[in-house]
Model the fold of this input.
Amino acid sequence: MYRKNAWKEYTDEQIKAVMDFNEGYKDFLSKGKTERLCVELTKELAEAKGFRNLDEILKNGGEIKAGDKIYAENMGKNMALFVIGEKPLAEGMRILGAHIDSPRLDLKQNPLYESEEFAMLDTHYYGGIKKYQWVTLPLALHGVVVKKDGTKITLAIGEKEDDPVFGITDLLPHLAADQMQKTGAKIVEGENLDVTFGSIPLKDEKKDAVKANVLKILEDIYGIEAEDFVSAEIEVVPAGKARDLGLDRSMVMGYGHDDRVCAYTSLVAVLDVENCEYTNCCFLVDKEEIGSVGATGAQSLWMENTIAELMAAMDGSESLIKVRRAMANSKMLSSDVSAAVDPLYLSVSEKKNAAFLGYGVVFNKYTGARGKSGSNDANPEYMAEIRRAMDEEKICYQTSELGKVDQGGGGTIAYIMGNYCMNVIDAGVPVMNMHAPWEVVSKADVYEAYRAYKAFLAEV
Done:
């Protein structure tokens, strides 16, 4: 109904703007491969635009007023940015909420072992993945190791040109007769997603000499001992930068489009919109891929607590009911991706209600699975407001469901924020290869999502 190919609508000048915007996005995607890295990049971009740390403001007894730009951070894995509006906070905010975690492999707490004179790292996969997609790829390690004295060591191995990379091996086809009889879920077992870490033995070491050698390297270069893995958080992700896909450079292939593509576009939209009537907010969360749980997931009380702190600093109010009013009166785009139609797998999509690459930002009135289980299901009155804002700014947009009704489904943070009685709808970028090590988006959709988020902040 509203679907049109954005590329056909663009002038040469607009195409240049699309391409330029995506250069910034590719850089963010390549550098922000973990939640912690995304928070660091967000903080850097925010401070460059004049945003101040809420904790510092509260510590110094500073005032907060309309026009102020503020950010808050939670455990290095959550970020919220606020541009304070003219209206009281209790009248609501305009919120863009995205998650910054992506499917990956995590090192176990006791990961290092030796087998057949190979040093290996034991992993536990995080989020919904097809396990067989993670073998025979160059992989990188990112994370932090915290020693008993509190010293924090940052690891990033596998991204520089002269860095070593890591990998998970697979059987050669000549000997894979039994393996090929298994279902896709069993071709590679979760406990076999172990990373090859080294193969040179330490001289004069009689037992586990290869393991001893890599431990020596870790200690010599990074000051890390075997026991330090217990207080470490190390993620295994695809190595390498995001790249242009297609001879026409119309798409981006990279790790973590779900959901860093919406995180980046939401972030830049909040950074670019000023003089707002309602307080604008970009809310970046962790743990969405495993249910939005824990202290850094959308189900935590951190967002609510942060709003309470803002209100107390602005008018001295410590009333819980005012916080509840602020949340209930808010309007939100749950900035999350949707599945794009793949020409090789048309059977899982119902094309009248599916998203296509290059057709702009996609709105999902509901997500969930089968009978809308786990769905927010936005109100039509709210969708009408969104339509008006999109049409006034001539933004290319489409509507979608996540595949055919009985094929499966998925969820976002929309229903969690909807629990506050605020109006929420999912709005994001269609993705191919979703949850694979290398996902694909259209540059046009990335740009239209950014424009849509700006329009929402300014006009809804």
